Amino acid sequence: MTDTQLSAEGEAEVYQSFRHFWHPVAYSSDVESLPIAVRLCDTDIVVVRLGGRVRAFADLCPHRGARLSLGWVEEDQIRCAYHGWSYDGDGICTLIPSCLDQRIPAKARLRSYLCVESGGLVWVCLEDVPQFGIPPFQEHGDSAYRVVQIPPVDWNAGAARRIENFVDLAHIPWIHDGQLGSRDRPEAPVHDLVREADNIHMWGHFSEIQSIKTDSSQLDESDPTLTSNHNWRVYMPLTVWWQQSLPGDQFFGLLVAASPVSQNVTRTFMLNFRNFALEDPDAPFCRFQMEIAEQDRQIVESQRPEELPVDLAAELHVRTADKMSLEYRRWLVELKHELSDGGSKNRLRIHSEAGNYAT
């Protein structure tokens, strides 16, 4: 097996390991009176609210294989549009209109998936025993904060590439020149990180372009830069919580969750939060985040391979600027190993010796 084949196999195995974790598939507010179709890790799912609770089933009626997402909700049950079969919240068929006098087959039930609402999102796990819990989002539901849902966007790239991009500090002066950083100051800011129980915590105190309007009189209108504390938590494997501490105990941030639609297609859900300017329109905040994300999308979609390489020797690294990326890649591989059988654990080669770093 060539190095390229080995790497591609390892990346596919990391992707398959994502089935064991919680991922968002929709905003809670999008799941109302009608079932909706979503896709997670190449699995077609119907998400539907029955009896006030959101459920997730395979988007497939076992009778003739029609998509249940084409149906509707009736008396807290989902009805298939093809022949009218109805299923309750446990996925059990309760009615076959064409055969009312016959016993309903025991096999007439839907494949269900773990499904929970948390932080304004609908989370699904495709396996019965999730690894790690749902990433916390304490700002959601806190009356001190304004939380804004940003429309989800699909990128033609692997989900881990999407997450790595968001925590990559060295790209900011180049991709976001004049908005977040400046090419006149290209050095990656000093930062620290530590691996915790289910996340990598990264933090730093540094300057960036002042792009956020706050209520604080402590900001200098004549100075385009703002020095503040930044905190990131990468909840493994595909969610980031980021917070910027502004003068006057004001906080601004994002929850960014990358949902793997397929190996090379990612849907990103972003929730913007702030505890200032609560009465101001949300549109400018939302528009700014979408502009920044679009600048990143063009670059990330150009990366090859589309999936994040799990062989650390596949790409060059610099110790200071890329330490978050390296820690993230190592942990992805470790998680894959923990979920795989013993025979597959030796198929990946992980290189971390000094010779793999560019200086």
Can you characterise this structure?
- This protein has 359 residues and is an alpha+beta fold.
- The chain has 2 domains: 32-125, Rieske Iron-sulfur Protein (3-layer Sandwich); 146-339, Naphthalene 1,2-dioxygenase Alpha Subunit, Chain A, domain 1 (Alpha-Beta Complex).
- Helix content is 17%, strand content 32%.
- The chain is built from 5 helices and 17 strands.
- It has a 7-stranded antiparallel sheet. A 6-stranded antiparallel sheet has the order 1-10-9-4-3-2, with no helix packed on it. Strands 5-6-7-8 form a 4-stranded antiparallel sheet, with no helix packed on it.
- A hairpin with a 2-residue loop joins strand 2 (36-40) and strand 3 (43-50).
- The chain is globular and about 75 Å long.
- Residues 215-220 and 342-359 have low confidence and may be disordered.
Features:
alpha+beta, Naphthalene 1,2-dioxygenase Alpha Subunit, Chain A, domain 1, single chain, 359 residues, globular, 6-stranded antiparallel beta sheet, Rieske Iron-sulfur Protein
Brief description of this entry?
The protein is of the alpha+beta class. The protein folds into two domains: 32-125, Rieske Iron-sulfur Protein (3-layer Sandwich); 146-339, Naphthalene 1,2-dioxygenase Alpha Subunit, Chain A, domain 1, CATH 3.90.380. It contains five helices and 17 strands.
